[in-house]
């Protein structure tokens, strides 16, 4: 893990030779991955984040007043410590009293979650770019995620760029359709620091109350993108 100060993007984080985030545009990734899911269902109360040790998604989840419980499972405590030291404005999410941190393997963690526990599960343990981005979550893991969601619950995760890996996007969509029996959508947004400047997201709902990701029913006002305003545009595919 390598942190340095750039002239154009503020502080930058590299991990395994790939850009993870920059201070200048991290909000685009964090907001879309979080709010496209949370804004699609009424009054989400219980949220699980797997990965996301930087704290940015915690920061975004904490904007939702209906949320009562925010659990995060992060594999490496060093990641949390680095972001708290060098990126306090991102890691501020850890200061929310609703947050509980679990250290360990998210794949193992999700296996032991009681059925129907969470309204939303956000997966940030699979890198959005770089060689490992093409390693899809396996079917057993996705089945564990779906089981841990309530009926009509939603999952979001990064899903590569159409510009470079459209075949991975197609495989990811097909992969998710085998498990999730509710709405399945692919969204994308721009993150200038990432290769091609574009990153995608999968949005999946379990069977139950219908979820329409293109028409948010739980909008939130934020100063940058605002998922309530952007959803229809980023989900045009």
Characterization of the model:
This protein has 237 residues and is an alpha/beta fold. It is built from eight helices and ten strands. The chain has a single domain, classed as Vaccinia Virus protein VP39 (Rossmann fold). It has a seven-stranded mixed sheet, with helices on both faces. The protein has a three-stranded antiparallel sheet with strand order 1-2-3, with no helix packed on it. Strand 9 and strand 10 form a beta hairpin. It starts with a strand and ends with a helix. About 3% of the residues have low confidence.
CATH architecture: 3-Layer(aba) Sandwich
Count every beta strand, where a strand is a DSSP E run of 2 or more residues: 10
Tally the helices: 8
* Rg computed from alpha carbons, rounded to a whole number of angstroms: 16 Å
H/E element sequence: EEEHEHEHHEHEHEHEEH
Distance between the termini: 34 Å
Given helix and strand content, the structural type is: alpha/beta
Family: Belongs to the spermidine/spermine synthase family.
Protein name: PABS domain-containing protein
Pfam family, one: Spermine_synth
GO cellular component, one term: cytosol
